[in-house]
């Protein structure tokens, strides 16, 4: 059977047919006599064992379990009716056998959508929430929840069913009282809980419960190391793909990634560093692209994505570049068409192997075999049919950077922008016609007068989008406009740092058309300062600067007894809370902040400044829009954004005297 998957498939579905026999369905509907119970229950368990055995040798296709949804639902109903019959040993064994079958089925992520149709998520959540249900049943329920959460659709239905609250209550009842219990059952349950919660929630900035997050990351890394170093790639019943996939999702957050690589507590690791461990593991699974081992393929994809995340950080670049075997593996798969067509379910937060491999090589500045030598004439890649009908030199070239999760919004925006004949809009779905997507995207950024960043949670978590932002802003110093796709998202981390300064646009607060008008106004606001020379289109554009009039000294605040102005730098040793107007004025002067702002704010004490800093944190650009109006009215001159940014930065650096520096880490709550 191991060498004949078609025979295994035939045998598996024949066993499912046996489950549909009237004698079995009567049993599941409690319509048989007691004298027949034992023999039919035994037959049912044999059929289930046969299905579980044959599944190991089958690579399922999408919706292949569709016809079995009714019988699986009937099995779940039977468990639900008899779940508390602890005294009937044979019935309890039958219930456990059925649950193990459900567990086996959802272990294949390709089958999760069909399993959702059976309503298994509703049953297992209900059973997990029960306080008087046996732990062996709830243990399998946690396994099923974890396996469902590995698929986006599974995670969605679980979250809609209040799964996180149910899991946290399970932790309070079962795990917390046994947190020091080293029995294998509780070790397994703790790890399952960690992985399920990690897949269902998003890390967020918080200073609470850091120990809990570190323990989660330590457990995940230890499981990855133990399984990754084992000959069968398993440890404690977990395949290495399970912790690695979770780490892939978490490690898009820089704070988590650096903790995993620099601080996580891992025992028995053969590699000298965590970076070396991931490189060795990737080399170990390199051959997975040529096999039909689904879990090995998923592991390889996840490892490429983790190492892509690592390659964004300068402190790890030298180690990656010095690993010859790792680089050889990445380069060989960057141009391997077979690596991009792996027939395996891949979560949305992960990119394909070629895309991740090319992203790694781009970050490491290595020769990319999938990227041809650049042509001096970049325009030659654009076909005649793609050429704008009007002279592109007289139009503002706009490149749109977006996450594919926001493609519907992107298409709506691009279609609207293209109606303006003054714009030449570039977006990948209109212009990328080859597999050399990084080459084409890179050229589009180089040619652009302005880059639009369509920001969302998916954008911030996307390594592709991160690469585009870094190339546009860090490497080429391009002018860009941050655009919030939704009203309830605020950029943080690597993205938040890079968008400080330019005015942003937020969709969702006003009508779509009104917001587009605001965007167009902003695009043209600085057009003359950013238009590139058509003869030198491949060169990076200079940084955009605002033209400011000579400062009108008549508008400066005059020193007097109530509002002193100090011009010499003097370190402030007094705690912020005890500052008077004199120290406040000195602080403004030390940080070279516009002196007119002292009168605008009229802070009386240092505590006022600290409290104002808290108000600025959620969205300082809203405050800027309000203050610049007051500033214009009072001084009849504009308050430039970079002046206000300097003020915001200085305020953010302030800390109350009693607070001690604490390490910030994204945590899972």
Explain this structure.
It contains 32 helices and nine strands. The protein has about 675 residues and is mainly alpha-helical. Strands 5-4-6-7-8 form a five-stranded parallel beta sheet, with helices on both faces. Strands 1-9 form a two-stranded antiparallel ribbon. Strand 7, helix 25 and strand 8 form a beta-alpha-beta unit. Helix 7 packs across helix 8. The protein is elongated, with a radius of gyration of 30 Å. About 35% of the residues are buried.
How would you briefly describe this protein structure?
With 669 residues, the protein is mostly helical. The chain has 32 helices and 9 strands.
How many strand segments?
Answer: 9
Shape: elongated
Helix content: 40-55%
Instruction: Briefly note the structural class of the backbone.
Output: mainly alpha
Which percent range describes the beta-strand content?
Answer: under 5%
Main sheet: strand order? 5-4-6-7-8
Largest sheet: 5 strands, parallel
Radius of gyration equals: 30 Å
Could you report the average pLDDT, rounded to the nearest whole number?
Answer: 82
The end-to-end span amounts to 45 Å
Number of distinct helices = 32
Low-confidence parts:
370-391, 528-567, 658-664
Which labels suit this protein?
55% helix; mainly alpha; 32 helices
Secondary structure elements and pairings:
Elements: H1 5-19, H2 22-28, H3 34-55, H4 69-82, H5 89-106, H6 112-117, H7 120-128, H8 135-149, H9 152-160, H10 163-175, H11 184-200, E1 204-206, H12 210-229, E2 234-235, E3 238-239, H13 241-250, H14 254-262, H15 274-284, H16 294-311, H17 314-321, H18 324-334, H19 353-364, E4 396-401, H20 407-417, E5 423-426, H21 428-431, H22 437-447, E6 450-455, H23 457-461, H24 463-475, E7 480-484, H25 493-498, E8 505-506, H26 512-525, H27 527-530, H28 581-590, H29 596-601, H30 606-616, H31 620-635, H32 641-652, E9 665-667
Parallel strand pairs: 4-5, 4-6, 6-7, 7-8
Antiparallel strand pairs: 1-9, 2-3
Helix pairs in contact: 1-3, 3-5, 4-5, 5-8, 7-8, 8-9, 8-11, 10-11, 12-13, 13-16, 15-16, 16-19, 18-19
């Amino acid at each position: 059977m191991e060498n004949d998957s078609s025979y295994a498939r035939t045998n598996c579905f024949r066993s499912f047919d046996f489950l549909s026999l009237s004698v079995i369905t009567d049993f599941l509907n409690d319509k048989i006599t007691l004298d027949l119970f034992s023999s039919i229950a035994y037959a049912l368990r044999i059929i289930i064992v046969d299905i579980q055995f044959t599944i190991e040798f089958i690579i399922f296709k999408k919706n292949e379990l569709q016809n079995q949804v009714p019988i699986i639902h009937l099995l779940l109903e039977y468990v639900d009716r008899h779940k508390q019959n602890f005294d009937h040993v044979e019935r309890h064994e039958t219930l456990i056998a059925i649950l193990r079958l459900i567990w086996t089925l959802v272990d294949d992520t390709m089958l999760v959508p069909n399993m959702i149709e059976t309503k298994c998520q509703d049953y297992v959540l209900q059973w997990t929430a029960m306080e008087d249900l046996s732990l062996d049943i709830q243990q399998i329920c946690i396994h099923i929840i974890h396996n469902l959460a590995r698929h986006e659709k599974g995670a969605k239905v679980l979250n809609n069913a209040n799964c996180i609250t149910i899991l946290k209550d399970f932790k309070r009842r079962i795990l917390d009282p046994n947190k020091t219990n080293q029995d294998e059952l509780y070790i397994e349950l703790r790890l399952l809980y960690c992985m399920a919660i990690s897949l269902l929630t998003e890390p967020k900035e918080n200073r609470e419960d850091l120990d809990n997050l570190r323990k989660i990351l330590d457990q995940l890394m230890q499981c990855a190391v133990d399984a990754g170093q084992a000959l069968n790639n398993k440890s404690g019943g977990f395949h290495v793909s399970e912790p690695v996939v979770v780490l892939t999702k978490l490690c898009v957050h820089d704070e988590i990634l650096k903790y995993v690589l620099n601080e996580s507590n891992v025992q028995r690791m053969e590699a000298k560093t965590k970076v070396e461990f991931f490189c060795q593991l990737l080399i170990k699974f390199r051959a997975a692209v040529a096999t039909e081992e689904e879990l090995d393929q998923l592991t390889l994809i996840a490892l490429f994505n983790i190492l892509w995340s690592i390659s964004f950080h300068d402190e790890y670049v030298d180690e990656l570049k010095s690993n010859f075997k790792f680089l050889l593996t990445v380069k060989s798969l960057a141009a391997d068409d077979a690596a991009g067509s792996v027939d395996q379910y891949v979560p949305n937060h992960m990119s394909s192997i070629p895309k991740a491999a090319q992203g790694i090589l781009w970050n490491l500045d290595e020769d990319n075999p999938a990227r041809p030598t650049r042509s001096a004439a970049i325009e030659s890649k654009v076909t005649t049919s793609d050429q704008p009908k009007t002279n592109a030199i007289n139009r503002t070239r706009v490149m749109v950077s977006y996450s594919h999760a926001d493609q519907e919004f992107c298409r709506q925006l691009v279609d609207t922008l293209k109606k303006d004949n003054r714009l030449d809009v570039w977006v990948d779905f209109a212009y990328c016609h080859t597999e050399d997507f990084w080459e084409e995207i890179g050229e589009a950024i180089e040619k652009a007068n302005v880059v639009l960043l369509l920001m969302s949670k998916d954008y911030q978590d996307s390594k592709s989008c991160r690469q585009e932002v870094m190339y546009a802003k860090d490497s080429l110093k391009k002018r860009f406009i941050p655009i919030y796709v939704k009203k309830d998202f605020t950029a943080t981390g690597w993205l938040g740092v890079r968008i400080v300064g330019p005015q942003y646009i937020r969709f969702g607060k006003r009508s779509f058309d009104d917001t587009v008008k605001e965007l167009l106004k902003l695009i043209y606001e600085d057009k003359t300062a950013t238009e590139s020379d058509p003869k030198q289109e491949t060169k990076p554009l200079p940084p955009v600067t605002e033209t400011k009039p000579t400062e009108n000294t008549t508008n400066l605040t005059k020193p007097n007894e109530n509002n002193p102005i100090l011009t010499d730098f003097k370190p402030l040793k007094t705690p912020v809370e005890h500052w008077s107007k004199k120290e406040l004025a000195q602080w403004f002067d030390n940080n070279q902040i516009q002196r007119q702002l002292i009168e605008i704010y009229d802070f009386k004490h240092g505590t006022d400044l600290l409290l104002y800093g808290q108000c600025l944190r959620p969205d300082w650009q809203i405050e800027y829009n309000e203050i610049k109006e007051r500033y214009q009215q009072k001084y009849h001159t504009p308050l430039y954004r970079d002046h206000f940014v300097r003020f915001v930065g200085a305020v953010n650096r302030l800390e109350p005297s009693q607070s001690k520096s604490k390490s910030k880490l994204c945590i899972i709550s």
